Amino acid sequence: MAGSWQHMTTKGGRNPNPRMTPMIENLGDAYEAAEECYGMVQVLAEQLANVTGQPREDLIRSACAWYQVGLSIGGVQKS
Q: What is the pLDDT of residue 57?
């Protein structure tokens, strides 16, 4: 089963893990990975909201709008 953050990223936490695609056996694996990422975003947004006082939903909307910056922070090169 490839439905986890550890499968999607390299040991150093970089995305994408080039070995991930062959590990995805079905859409259930992809859904589990997306579900785990969704949960992680919610936890991190809640923690940041507690520190900044900004609404969690606003923080998530901002992250969605700026996801390409996040990819570059994580070392992903978009073509």
A: 96
- Asked whether residue 78 is domain-assigned, the answer is no
pTM for the whole thing? 0.75
DSSP 74: T
- In the predicted structure, residue 28 carries a pLDDT above the cut 90: no
Domain annotation covers residue 45: yes
In a domain, 52, yes or no: yes
d(CA 70, CA 7): 19
Residue 64 lies in a domain: yes
Q: Three-state DSSP class for 39?
A: helix
Band of pLDDT at residue 6, cut at 50, 70 and 90: confident
Q: Which domain holds residue 68?
A: 5-73
Neighbours of 8 (CB within 10 A): 20
